[in-house]
Amino acid sequence: MKKRQKKSVSKKRNLYLYLTIIAMFAILPVLRYSPFSDTPAELHKAADTKARLIVNTPLENTSYNIFNNNNNEFVAEGSGFSKNFNLPAGNYRIEFAEIDGYKTPEPRIFSYDGRSDFAVDGKYIPSLGYPLLGIKVFPENAEYVISDRQGKKIAEGNGSQFFQMPNGNYSVEFSEIPGFSTPEKRDFFVANGIIATIIAVYGQE
After folding, report:
1. Which residues pair with 104 in a beta bridge?
2. Mean pLDDT throughout 130-140?
């Protein structure tokens, strides 16, 4: 009786071993063609983000074209305050459109390596002799009103932008945004030949 039991146990062990080997051979092809990389370098490469060419201008109604400077081939167009482009490495040229009342920036020629962010600024300068006020706000949906010394509304804005206005004393008041603390009223002075800049950051409550 004991010999029969030993033979039965031995047969069961051999059967389990046989099934385990079959299961391993069945799994190997799945592991071989798994979409996941087994090398840390490839995983890191997949997680990397693409470098950007960033074009900044001080006005919302600006526009410009980007060309390959080697063969004058058109590459891309853009507009507004800030825009990002994913471009391969190369030599480029940006040509800015004219805007009434502003001196147009000279074409910008530059080399872009495609590996790190690169910023190009299109500096539109007022040609009418008026001072320039720059307001930078965060978040970008912030609204505000600019008034003169007598409290008369001169302009209102939404987001970061530039304003032209005569010499003088002014103030800017920021509207409330739910969930944020509102920046205090700011008094400032603008004069010819000077770019006055006001930065207002809404704090989170």
Report:
1. none
2. 85
Question: By three-state DSSP, how is residue 15 classified?
Answer: helix
d(CA 88, CA 92): 10
What is the residue type of 130?
Y
φ, ψ for residue 9, nearest 5 deg: -65, -40
Q: Does domain 49-125 fall into CATH 2.60.40.10?
A: yes
Mean pLDDT for the stretch of residues 96-104: 85
Specify the pairing of strand 186-190 against strand 203-204: unpaired
Domain boundaries, the chain: 2-35, 49-125, 129-204
Q: If pLDDT is split at 50, 70 and 90, which confidence band does 13 have?
A: low
pLDDT of residue 106: 92
Of 124-128, 179-183, 188-192, highest mean pLDDT: 179-183
Q: What share of the chain is helix, strand, coil (3-state, %, to 5)?
A: 20, 40, 40
CATH number belonging to domain 129-204: 2.60.40.10
Tokens (6 digits) for 102: 């502003």
DSSP conformation class of 115: S
**Is the four-CA dihedral 123, 126, 129, 133 of positive or negative sign?**
negative
Cα separation of 91 and 43, whole Å?
A: 30
Rg over CA atoms, the chain: 32
Average pLDDT of span 44-60:
68
Tokens describing residue 44:
């890191």
How buried is 192 (Cβ within 10 angstroms: 0-12 exposed, 13-18 middle, 19+ buried)? exposed
